[in-house]
């Protein structure tokens, strides 16, 4: 069933049960699913055609309402394997077509039930193409999804709620989604035949600082033959070094990198001085850039999808990548000691930096995919090469 909502103040049909209200009063009517109630967040869009469960469980989406531009969301259901964290950190989801019964051999549940079990609020039957064009033209707005089976909404109150929320700029969310305690990780990547594997014998140890890490990053690190110890975002330098790491990983995560520096930067500054190999992804990349003296800024609409072309400036090779970020590193702000190793072929923004002498590098794209192409997996291998070289020196 398709439905074309209209921008009117009262529901355009009697069975309407949800509305997405943007801060400027723009309304998108639709049908609610998941948990009844209302939730405020930054409304962004993701253009991936597959992998909605991985996207919904990526902790970097904390504080955000995800619009899926691909119309058929929910069609492959949900399963236990496609979780990128224990539960979704995003605030809600907006989808085009009404969610149908799941049809996939891997499914063990339905997206609507899964959303309800995870306390997520969703709205379906929305003109997501119109919403995406709105975001493209105006930037990512604050918005509220309200879901009520009565079909009654106090639109003025919902507009006020959208405007009262301070927005992602200046918001530190990493410590909210980070693990509370240190834990070990030895799981490797998934394959259709074997499912997930596990590392058995290795003497290489990576400490991963968890600002909101996706599980597949930890799997990729382990896959290159290392055991990983994951530590909470606010772990201090001495505690990290007491774990005897051979390499340090700085994870992805939500929120504004400039607001996350308070506890992250002093530690990263000291880690840089140890001479240990360091690898950062997304928020970890942005924090590393700030630690080197760079600056970050909020992008107009961000990059979220699974087909973003990125060029390695050293080899000219192009990799098609998975992206999820709304902040970016300012190229002009970077000091001489680092090079820009990767750039976006969509808009020329910085997608990677590498220190000229130290074994330290980071990227904005997601080499772990989940979902998305795996062209950038070599970055995990490069990190391991740095670790092995450093151990042998
Ligand atoms: N995936 C991420 O790590 C996102 C980093 C940061 N929160 C941003 O939006 O740019």
Automatic annotation (TrEMBL):
Name assigned to this protein: Carbamoyl phosphate synthase small chain
Reactions performed catalytically: hydrogencarbonate + L-glutamine + 2 ATP + H2O = carbamoyl phosphate + L-glutamate + 2 ADP + phosphate + 2 H(+); L-glutamine + H2O = L-glutamate + NH4(+)
Function: Small subunit of the glutamine-dependent carbamoyl phosphate synthetase (CPSase). CPSase catalyzes the formation of carbamoyl phosphate from the ammonia moiety of glutamine, carbonate, and phosphate donated by ATP, constituting the first step of 2 biosynthetic pathways, one leading to arginine and/or urea and the other to pyrimidine nucleotides. The small subunit (glutamine amidotransferase) binds and cleaves glutamine to supply the large subunit with the substrate ammonia.
CDD domains recorded: GATase1_CPSase
Pfam families: CPSase_sm_chain, GATase
NCBIfam families: CPSaseIIsmall, PRK12838.1
Molecular function via GO: ATP binding; carbamoyl-phosphate synthase (glutamine-hydrolyzing) activity
Active site: 282 (nucleophile), 366, 368
PROSITE patterns named among the record's database cross-references: GATASE_TYPE_1
Broad EC category: ligase
Annotated L-glutamine binding sites: 60, 253, 255, 283, 286, 324, 326-327
Pathway the protein contributes to: Amino-acid biosynthesis; L-arginine biosynthesis; carbamoyl phosphate from bicarbonate: step 1/1; Pyrimidine metabolism; UMP biosynthesis via de novo pathway; (S)-dihydroorotate from bicarbonate: step 1/3
Enzyme Commission number, as recorded: 6.3.5.5
Subunit: Composed of two chains; the small (or glutamine) chain promotes the hydrolysis of glutamine to ammonia, which is used by the large (or ammonia) chain to synthesize carbamoyl phosphate. Tetramer of heterodimers (alpha,beta)4.
BP-aspect Gene Ontology terms: 'de novo' pyrimidine nucleobase biosynthetic process; 'de novo' UMP biosynthetic process; glutamine metabolic process; L-arginine biosynthetic process
Organism annotation: Temperatibacter marinus
CPSase: annotated span: 1-196
Family as reported in the entry's similarity comment: Belongs to the CarA family.
InterPro entries listed in its UniProt record: Anth_synth/Amidotransfase, CarbamoylP_synth_ssu, CarbamoylP_synth_ssu_N, CarbP_synth_ssu_N_sf, Class_I_gatase-like, CPSase_GATase1, GATASE
Domain Carbamoyl-phosphate synthase small subunit N-terminal: 16-146
């Amino acid at each position: 069933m398709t439905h074309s909502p209209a921008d009117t103040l009262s529901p355009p049909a009697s069975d309407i049960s949800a509305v997405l209200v943007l801060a400027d009063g723009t309304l998108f009517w639709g049908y609610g699913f998941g948990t009844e109630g209302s939730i405020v967040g930054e409304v962004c869009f993701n253009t991936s055609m597959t992998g909605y469960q991985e996207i919904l469980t990526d902790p970097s989406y904390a504080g955000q309402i995800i619009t899926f531009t691909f119309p058929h969301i929910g069609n492959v259901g949900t399963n236990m394997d496609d979780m990128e964290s224990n539960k979704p950190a995003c605030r809600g989801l907006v989808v085009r077509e009404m969610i149908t019964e799941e049809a996939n051999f891997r499914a063990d549940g339905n997206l609507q039930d899964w959303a309800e079990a995870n306390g997520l609020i969703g709205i379906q039957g929305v003109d997501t193409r119109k919403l995406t064009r709105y975001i493209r033209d105006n930037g990512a707005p604050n918005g509220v999804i309200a879901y009520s089976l009565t079909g009654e909404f106090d639109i003025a109150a919902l507009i006020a709620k959208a405007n009262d929320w301070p927005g992602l700029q200046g918001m530190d969310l990493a410590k909210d989604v980070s693990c509370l305690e240190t834990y070990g990780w030895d799981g490797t990547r998934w394959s259709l035949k074997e499912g997930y594997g596990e590392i058995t014998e290795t003497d290489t140890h990576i400490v991963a600082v968890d600002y909101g890490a996706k599980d597949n990053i930890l799997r990729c690190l382990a896959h290159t033959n290392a055991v990983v110890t994951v530590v909470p975002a606010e772990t201090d330098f001495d505690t990290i070094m007491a774990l005897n790491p051979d390499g340090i990983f700085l994870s992805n995560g939500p929120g504004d990198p400039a607001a996350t520096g308070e506890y992250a930067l002093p530690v990263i500054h000291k880690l840089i001085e140890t001479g240990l190999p360091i690898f950062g992804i997304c928020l970890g990349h942005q924090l590393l850039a700030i630690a080197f003296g760079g600056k970050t800024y909020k992008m107009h609409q961000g990059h979220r999808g699974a087909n973003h072309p990125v060029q390695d400036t050293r080899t000219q090779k192009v990799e098609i990548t998975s992206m999820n970020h709304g902040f970016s590193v300012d190229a002009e702000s970077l000091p001489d000691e680092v090079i820009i190793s990767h750039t976006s072929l969509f808009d020329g923004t910085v997608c990677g930096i590498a220190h000229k002498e130290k074994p330290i590098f980071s990227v904005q794209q997601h080499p772990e995919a989940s979902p998305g192409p795996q062209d950038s997996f070599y970055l995990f291998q490069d990190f391991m090469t740095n670790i092995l070289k450093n151990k042998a020196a």
